[in-house]
């Protein structure tokens, strides 16, 4: 560095102008990044392992962590829930019709899995996993793909020894060679083919979204809202809502005896909710609103929480989280309230639903 | 209808034969004749008597309520959740080339985050002489450029690989927008930090939970990549990466990292999730192409189309659409009304520019018969937009991304249109 500076000083007198265009103009803007800042943000991991922190995690620990943090969307066995990504299976299907692309069947580098899980997962609660947790979850994903045994422990030391089945399955973009015939320059203009037949129609498949009836009704309602007069129908709906609210609010006050076993079971179920929700003393809004006193409360009331439009609308319409409403919501959130921010697939078992409601009831404030 | 008009109005059949015999001129003259005095003209209208809104009625204006169907739309079955999802620009209802920000498609991997300018930091690190941190204000002090570019998701038209699926140009081709960006060349920022000779790639990432990191060869990073903070003259929208996004001209939208927070200079690519498990293209034999960054030349007729049927009957018809290429400028667009047997050149509204949308028109006299409408783009490298069959021939049937095939709309005698595939 000092040599370089001397050289610059030495030649500056004779060649200031000549040298200037060759060197990039500097503006002296910004400031040097501190090592702590670089360490906080520079987390990416490359295929050769550059960027991997020291640490380790076992398949066994990974199974627990996966169940807590990942199974909601990816399934207990990494098989995927609904439209969420499948992480296991599919080996040998890449040349089939509709190949199944998973970590095991498709991903060429293990570094990609570690890096992505560490920085971008769990969905809605990213950057909360420790290095060891990440090693364990990645070990479990490998196990789910039959790539390691159940006693396997993944660490920064054996990381590069894991062989990914599709490591050699990629080629660099070769369109300019493989598709060179598309550069025809003078395409055919007349009598380019003998006959033209319709071979497939979109109307047959019918998968195009249409403006739903519900949406139209909503629009109609919105349109009539600003009108100064309130007609009988609106009054009727309002009265009905008021009645429902009262009905729903009543049982919420009877929180006397809670079955401690059920509450305990609910605490376990609540692990699935924890990625996004807090409950209890000092609970705050996270990805989801805090849930203290939620059972029996009016919807959309957590202070400063940004609810979805539909939740706000439901709150305005007087939705109350009675046990019944809550149970319906928890069973299939998206079906119950289309457009809710809650990206949770839903609790499948009625017992789990009742348990988690009991658990939530144990936090009345 | 007055008696007069009912006598003079020809039946549909007479109309068609008349048109054929007398030629187009007669039809046009007939169409111009009024049925009777138009009350919109003869009667004084409410809006010509009273007054309208004062200034400031809407401090930031939205489109008038009659245009409320010109909005982005989502295809719910495509993704598990709207937070990691995509919607579509209503290209069937727009004209010109600039996409208004408010209806330009969105693609998020962890939702659209809210990031204040005051909280914004951009770090340049890795193989540089001095790792640097810039604030938003710092960025505004570098020399700026204005450039118009299209941004197309690699998956645009992806649902059509399997066959004609979605019935509307918005859904088949709406993962695209075209804006005028103001920003600083990435080159300027990299030079400010001083790239070391061993640096061959940059890795760019966003501030959101997905980070959506991508590796870009240094050559491209030093060429035309922009660190943009304005689009169409105003601040970026939250959903497009406010306050700062990367603009990677001609390359797939996934690389246009939103909420850009870090640029790292590296010797090799990171091979992140978005450039290995996603945004790669599996061929018939099971091997996959990676680093397929460039968006091939493509075009689509936006009107008439399934969401924009012909409602005015035979006679003069404006056929219009969009064309673009990630390799350069559009040099020509041909239109076919018979499913690709014969082609005629369309009129470009303005000469094509590099990696930006070009609007084309075919001013057409429609005789009311069925059409199989297609458009075919050609770019400055001599590339001609292929058919789906040509693409499948090379790539097989398992592709998801980079479907730039010729699109067919079956326009029926009623003026309605449907998405079809033809032989």
From TrEMBL, chain A:
<keyword id="KW-0732">Signal</keyword>
<keyword id="KW-0479">Metal-binding</keyword>
<feature type="signal peptide">
    <location>
        <begin position="1"/>
        <end position="24"/>
    </location>
</feature>
<dbReference type="InterPro" id="IPR002327">
    <property type="entry name" value="Cyt_c_1A/1B"/>
</dbReference>
<dbReference type="Pfam" id="PF00034">
    <property type="entry name" value="Cytochrom_C"/>
</dbReference>
<keyword id="KW-0408">Iron</keyword>
<protein>
    <submittedName>
        <fullName>MFS transporter</fullName>
    </submittedName>
</protein>
<dbReference type="InterPro" id="IPR009056">
    <property type="entry name" value="Cyt_c-like_dom"/>
</dbReference>
<keyword id="KW-0249">Electron transport</keyword>
<keyword id="KW-0349">Heme</keyword>
<feature type="domain" description="Cytochrome c">
    <location>
        <begin position="261"/>
        <end position="364"/>
    </location>
</feature>
<dbReference type="InterPro" id="IPR036909">
    <property type="entry name" value="Cyt_c-like_dom_sf"/>
</dbReference>
<dbReference type="GO" id="GO:0009055">
    <property type="term" value="F:electron transfer activity"/>
</dbReference>
<feature type="domain" description="Cytochrome c">
    <location>
        <begin position="57"/>
        <end position="145"/>
    </location>
</feature>
<dbReference type="GO" id="GO:0046872">
    <property type="term" value="F:metal ion binding"/>
</dbReference>
<dbReference type="GO" id="GO:0020037">
    <property type="term" value="F:heme binding"/>
</dbReference>
<keyword id="KW-0813">Transport</keyword>
UniProtKB/TrEMBL annotation, chain B:
<dbReference type="Pfam" id="PF03404">
    <property type="entry name" value="Mo-co_dimer"/>
</dbReference>
<keyword id="KW-0560">Oxidoreductase</keyword>
<dbReference type="Pfam" id="PF00174">
    <property type="entry name" value="Oxidored_molyb"/>
</dbReference>
<dbReference type="InterPro" id="IPR005066">
    <property type="entry name" value="MoCF_OxRdtse_dimer"/>
</dbReference>
<dbReference type="GO" id="GO:0020037">
    <property type="term" value="F:heme binding"/>
</dbReference>
<dbReference type="GO" id="GO:0030151">
    <property type="term" value="F:molybdenum ion binding"/>
</dbReference>
<dbReference type="InterPro" id="IPR008335">
    <property type="entry name" value="Mopterin_OxRdtase_euk"/>
</dbReference>
<dbReference type="InterPro" id="IPR030835">
    <property type="entry name" value="Sulfite_DH_SoxC"/>
</dbReference>
<dbReference type="GO" id="GO:0006790">
    <property type="term" value="P:sulfur compound metabolic process"/>
</dbReference>
<protein>
    <submittedName>
        <fullName>Sulfite dehydrogenase</fullName>
    </submittedName>
</protein>
<keyword id="KW-0479">Metal-binding</keyword>
<feature type="signal peptide">
    <location>
        <begin position="1"/>
        <end position="34"/>
    </location>
</feature>
<keyword id="KW-0500">Molybdenum</keyword>
<dbReference type="InterPro" id="IPR014756">
    <property type="entry name" value="Ig_E-set"/>
</dbReference>
<feature type="domain" description="Oxidoreductase molybdopterin-binding">
    <location>
        <begin position="115"/>
        <end position="270"/>
    </location>
</feature>
<dbReference type="GO" id="GO:0043546">
    <property type="term" value="F:molybdopterin cofactor binding"/>
</dbReference>
<dbReference type="InterPro" id="IPR036374">
    <property type="entry name" value="OxRdtase_Mopterin-bd_sf"/>
</dbReference>
<keyword id="KW-0732">Signal</keyword>
<dbReference type="InterPro" id="IPR000572">
    <property type="entry name" value="OxRdtase_Mopterin-bd_dom"/>
</dbReference>
<dbReference type="GO" id="GO:0008482">
    <property type="term" value="F:sulfite oxidase activity"/>
</dbReference>
<feature type="domain" description="Moybdenum cofactor oxidoreductase dimerisation">
    <location>
        <begin position="289"/>
        <end position="407"/>
    </location>
</feature>
<dbReference type="InterPro" id="IPR006311">
    <property type="entry name" value="TAT_signal"/>
</dbReference>
